[in-house]
Design a protein that fits this description.
Length: about 230
């Protein structure tokens, strides 16, 4: 019995030793390739760190500084100056071109999109707002809702329904959700889709009664019911 255990142990040891030997042979045979692969990975990591520290971070800071004046024009509804600059400072369009890969450049797409809506250039607005991305769910909902506004102004009500629905469902809150539900309900009415209009208005009544939209929703519900 003891002899069998010893034999099994010897066999297992030999198997392990054989495996290790094969691994050593593989490493020795492919040492150059392995060294190149490891070196390449380390070089890529080093380049990424250097890019983040010496290129992206300064570029991000520069983009934010460049955008400051454009934001001021935006806040006072000077949308052409906000987009195109004033000759001394760039507008959102140039910032997008030069710093589009930065967070500031991405945010400039939102500002520019809203500016184009105000200037009635809806296709440009839609393109920019669709290209804008953010992890902030509230801002994301607003940007999506703005796309719905642009489609409404284009009288493309089917696409308006799609984007108002997305905006309303993006995040559940008492600020943006009832606003986009109200817009959605009114578009349904224009499409004579009174069943969906009623369901949408009922959502406001049931869930957002204390909001501005909720306090006036009863008249919309009554109007839709009379139209059915």
């Amino acid at each position: 019995m003891s002899t069998n255990k010893e034999q099994n142990a010897d066999h297992n040891f030999e198997a392990i030793e054989s495996t290790l030997s094969k691994s050593e042979q593989f490493i020795e045979k492919n040492q150059t390739k392995i060294t190149i692969v490891v070196g390449t990975i380390l070089a890529i990591v080093g380049l990424y760190i250097a890019y983040q520290k010496f290129i992206k971070a300064p570029k991000e800071k520069e983009a934010l500084a460049q955008m400051f004046v454009a934001e001021q024009y935006f806040e006072v509804d000077s949308f052409k100056l906000a987009l195109n600059g004033d000759g001394n400072y760039p507008g959102f369009s140039k910032i997008i071109d030069q710093y589009g890969s930065t967070k500031a450049g991405n945010l400039a797409k939102y500002y520019a999109g809203v500016s184009y809506i105000k200037l009635k250039e809806y296709d440009k607005a839609i393109d920019l707002l669709q290209d804008f991305s953010t992890s902030d769910e509230m801002l994301s909902a607003i940007a999506i809702g703005c796309i719905g506004d642009a489609y409404t102004e284009k009288n493309d009500l089917k696409n308006a329904v799609e984007y108002y629905s997305k905006a309303a469902d993006k995040t559940d809150n008492k600020f943006s959700t009832p606003i986009y539900l109200m817009k959605l309900g009114r578009v349904y009415e224009h499409l004579s889709d009174f069943k969906n209009a009623l369901n949408t208005y009922q959502r406001i009544k049931d869930n957002y009664a204390q909001t501005q939209e909720g306090r006036q929703i009863e008249k919309y519900i009554t109007r839709v019911k009379l139209s059915m």
